[in-house]
Structure formats: C-alpha cells, structure tokens
Design a protein that fits this description.
The protein contains 16 helices and six strands. By secondary structure, the chain is mainly alpha-helical. The protein has three domains: 90 residues, Orthogonal Bundle (Fumarase C, Chain B, domain 1); 229 residues, Fumarase C, Chain A, domain 2, CATH 1.20.200; 33 residues, no CATH class.
Length: 395
C-alpha cells in the first residue's frame, strides 16, 4: 500500500511513469531512512504518541530492515514507489498498529528530505576521506620524483622550466581547496528538515530539537517552506562542489595524456592500465585517463539538470523534484570512483628521468637570461629583444 493510498487504484501506466526508478535508487537511502525513523519514533514516544513498548518494537523492526538491507534482501517493489513506503509497510506487516503510527508528525516530503540530507552528509564525508588519501599518495609521489625538472608549457608549447613537484603540487593545492568546498557543502546540508511536513509545519507539538540531536544535525531548519525550497538548491550546490573536484581531475588527466605521449614520455602508466586497438596491434591507449577526463562533463550535465529542474517552481513541493534524486546519487558515485581512480593512477605512475632531462632544452631558459640582464641594469624590454634576437639566430 502506498503512503497516500485512497479508495482507488492508480492507472498502471501512470503508476510506472510516476514511480520511475525510485524503487531502485532508494536502496541507497534505506539505512538513512531507518536512522531517521528511529529518531522519529523515539521522539513520538517522548511526546506520548507512542508507548515505550511501541517504540522498542519499531526500533527492533527497523534494525531487522537494516540487517535485511545489509544482506541485499530488503526488496522495494514498484508498487511501494520508494524505500519510505516499503519500510512503513514492513513495519506494519511485522509489528502491527505501531507501524501505522510511525508516520504521525511527518510527511513523506520531510521524510525524503531527511533521508537525503543524512545520505548527502555521509557521502560528502566519504569523498573528503578519499581526497585525503589521494593527497597522501600524491605527496608520496612528489617526495619520490619531485626534484626532477620537466618543461612547463603554454599554448601547448615549451615555455619555462617546471618540475614534477610544481606540477603535482598544483593538484594538491586544488584538491585542498576542494576539501574546503566539501566542508561548506556539509555545513549547508547539516540542518534538520524533519518536522517541517509538506512545507507548512506539523499541527502537533513535536520535539524537533530531540530529532536534531539524535540524528547529529548541527541545527534545525526552521522555516518549513524553505525546507522544501532548498531541495534542488542544496543538491545543485553539492553537484557544483563535486564538479570542481572533477574539474581538477580533468586537468590532471589531460596533462598525463599529454605527458605520457611516446614522443614525450616524461611519465608512464603500467601496461595493465592501458587498453588496445582491435585493428592496430601496436596501440596502448590511455582510456582510463580519457574517461577520467570525460567524467567532469558527465557530472556537469547532472548539475545542470538539477538546477534547471528546481527553478521556475512556486514555493513548496513539486513532483518535478523527484528527478533530482538520481542526479545527486549518481553524482556522488561518479565522483567517488573518479577520486579512487586518480589515487590508483598516482600509485602506479612512473617517471622517466632521462626523457625529462632531455626535454629541458635551451628555449626554456630564455626568460631567465632576460632577467640576468635586468639584474645587471639593462631595461627589461631591451633585454627581451636582445635574447629574442640571439635565440632567433641560433634556431
């Protein structure tokens, strides 16, 4: 039975269309809805809606669902629509009347919001942990190879001397900034919408501070209309932060595609990281880097989808917002794997010092020669023209 079920059956084609693939996506949200439902049940017990025994029964039933979920045995059917309905139906079937009471003091709107908030907080933390691991691996790479000089490029042409430490250090700085962005996103999500109902509050004296404390939120999201309006806004911001991470990994992957060209050969990936051609026997292709580069665009499309879905809606909930759920879930998945792949690449990336040294050709040092003359008192523009003329004569 659906949470909104009335005295009629929904048209089968309409049902399939409106459910979409939420019943599949919501496996991700089961642990978080159970967590929120436990806190909600204990709060209902405190205010006298549930008896102590009913609270215990409900928490036990939610623990059973968590165990089934861990074993991959908690099913959500299209008829359930989502995990929230499947959980309540399970509780009602196994416990009885207490299962029918647990929805007291909440709407599916704030129930979904709460599970998504908890999910997003957990995923933001998981990605931050993986970025920290990636930073450690890159730092170890710099310790091993950082002193080796390589050319720096502008316009895809040799420009000035650089080094592996300078190149890899730029990625470290970028990912460190990304950790700050993740912290900002976490702060945004760290407010409890449970108890805001369908966007206009609950006509019952519920204890929102209790559920806020139980669920580990930093604060209550007070305004019930804004709780609904923030759906899509918060997810769009999270995807924007994730796109910054993939922007940086895109740059790294593009550099490595270039630096591992056989004609340059500053870096190399092991053969087991490379793919081949079905027609050209000699090919060893950096597909992993090309796909890592492309993941930025895939994620950016998700961000644009969420932002465009959430705008031009009047205040309050609209079913359009259902379509933002897959974007944020997929976005976290894309980013997590991308960071893990980047870490694996740096763990297995090798450097060819001889090719790096051979690449440090004379033109890379023309700017330094200009400044040697400047330090001796020659005007910069005169020194620039002199070195340009000398280099032109040699080449």
């Amino acid at each position: 039975m659906k949470l909104w079920q009335k005295q009629y059956n929904l048209n089968a084609m309409i049902e399939a269309f409106t459910v979409g693939n939420d019943y599949l996506l919501d496996q991700e949200l089961v642990p978080f809805d159970c967590q929120a439902s436990k806190a909600h049940a204990r709060m209902l017990g405190k205010i006298g809606i549930l008896t102590e025994i009913e609270v215990e029964d409900l928490c036990r039933g939610l623990d059973q669902i968590l165990e089934l979920h861990r074993k991959g045995q908690f099913a959500i059917s299209p008829a359930d629509e989502d995990c929230h309905t499947a959980i309540e139906n399970y509780l009602t079937k196994t416990i009885g009347i207490a299962g029918e009471k647990i929805h007291t003091g909440r709407s599916r709107n704030d129930q979904v919001l709460t599970a998504l908030r908890l999910y997003c907080k957990a995923k933001l933390a998981e990605i931050a942990t993986n970025i920290q691991t990636c930073l450690t691996v890159i730092s170890e790479f710099i310790t091993q190879y950082g002193a080796i000089a390589i050319p720096g490029f502008t316009h895809t042409r040799k420009a000035m001397p650089s080094s592996i430490a300078l190149w890899a250090g730029a990625l470290c700085d970028a990912l460190t900034d990304d950790l700050d962005l993740l912290a900002t996103a976490t702060h945004l999500f760290d407010q409890n919408p449970l108890g805001t109902g369908a966007g206009y509050g609950i006509p019952l004296a519920i204890d929102r501070q209790m559920t806020t404390d139980e669920l580990g939120f930093a604060r209550i999201q007070e305004n019930p209309i804004y709780a609904q309006n923030s759906r899509g806004k918060f997810e769009g911001f999270a995807l924007s932060v994730l796109s910054q991470i993939l922007y940086d990994l895109n740059k790294m992957a593009t550099d490595l595609i270039f630096f591992t060209l056989p004609e340059l050969g500053y870096f190399a990936l092991p053969d087991e990281f490379l793919t081949g051609s079905s027609i050209m026997p000699h090919k060893k292709n950096p597909d992993v880097l090309e796909l890592l580069r492309a993941k930025y665009h895939e994620l950016l499309a998700r961000e644009i989808q969420v932002r465009n879905t959430a705008v031009n809606l009047i205040s309050g909930y609209h079913r359009d917002l259902q379509l933002t759920k897959e974007a944020i879930i997929r976005g976290f998945g894309i980013t997590l794997v991308a960071v893990q792949i980047a870490t694996l690449v740096f763990q297995n990336l090798s450097v060819n010092p001889d090719k790096c040294q051979a690449a440090m050709t004379e033109e890379l040092f023309t700017t330094a020669k200009v400044y040697e003359l400047v330090e001796k008192g020659m005007p910069f523009r005169e020194a620039y023209r002199l070195i340009a003329r000398q280099f032109g004569e040699k080449s």
